[in-house]
Amino acid sequence: MEITNSLSERTPQPVAASDPARLLDEMVSTLESLEAAIAGLQALREYTLAMASRVADFMNDGGAVRPGFDAVRWDSCSAELAQRAVAAEIATATRANDRTLQRQIGQAVELLDRFPLTFNALAEGRINLAHARVIQEVGMVLDEPGALSRYEAVVVAFAEQQAPGRVRRMAVREAEKVQPEPLSNRHEQAHEERRVWVTPLPDAWPNSQRCCPQPWHTASTTESPRWRTRMQKRWQSGHLTLLNCVGALN
């Protein structure tokens, strides 16, 4: 009975049904406050996860290297084990997957280290975690601190008034604007890294993947079913090989 009374005291009481506009206004105000509070808790969780990563760094004391191990490789393995141990400890307590926790810890560290304006906006309830993740994911390509700061300042202000989906489209455009290197240079560099690879799968049906220019990829994925059937027959008969695919990228 006490619990029921306590909940009743905290629950917004409905006003007269004859004034639905006032009722809606109070509901919107309550939900707005709740969203801000949730965002603050999300920021606290991100901060705590980032601090957990710092604890893992302290746990990795960089002790003596075991015989037969390279020093650099040993330090890397030791640091990875410490991070995994911390993630496993948190996952056990929160009934979560340890790999998921390890990924979230990495995201939290990056958010605090590279996106301070985004984290502050999240902590103050001006944006939510979905906004923060969009800003973070799109801004990962920006390595130059000045460009990242300009990008973050513009996108965070936009995110305070828009849904995450719209923020993503705007963030992509803004990230392109502040890129210090022209698009033509980045395209040439990506062209040098183009590749095709095949992953063996059961039943003699390999999975072929490619990293190639957009026009070639679009053309090859929008052909008619008849064209795909013809290519499949050529592949099965041995007339179409991986070298043909690579040659199409040259």
The biggest sheet, with number of strands, parallel, antiparallel or mixed sense and barrel status, is: 2 strands, antiparallel
How many DSSP E strands?
A: 2
Average pLDDT score: 78
Number of domains: 2
- The shape, in one word, is globular
Q: Give the terminus-to-terminus CA distance.
A: 76 Å
Major beta sheet, strand line-up: 1-2
User: How much beta, percentage-wise?
Assistant: under 5%
Tally of DSSP helical segments: 12
* Secondary-structure element order, N to C: HHHHHHHHHEEHHH
How helix-rich are the residues, as a percent range? over 70%
Q: Any idea what the radius of gyration is?
A: 26 Å
Contiguous uncertain segments of 5+ residues: 68-72, 215-220, 239-250
User: Class by helix and strand content?
Assistant: mainly alpha
Protein name: DUF222 domain-containing protein
Topology of helices and strands:
Elements: H1 2-10, H2 20-59, H3 71-94, H4 98-114, H5 116-123, H6 129-139, H7 145-159, H8 164-178, H9 183-192, E1 195-199, E2 207-211, H10 214-221, H11 225-237, H12 242-248
Antiparallel strand pairs: 1-2
Which key features would you list for this structure?
mainly alpha, 4% strand, 250 residues, disordered C terminus, 12 helices, two-stranded antiparallel sheet, single chain
Protein described:
This protein is mainly alpha-helical and 250 residues long. It has twelve helices and two strands, in the order αααααααααββααα. It has a two-stranded antiparallel sheet. The termini are far apart. 14% of the residues are buried. Residues 68-72, 215-220 and 239-250 have low confidence and may be disordered. InterPro entries: DUF222. This is DUF222 domain-containing protein. Residues 74-200 form the DUF222 domain. It comes from Arthrobacter cavernae.
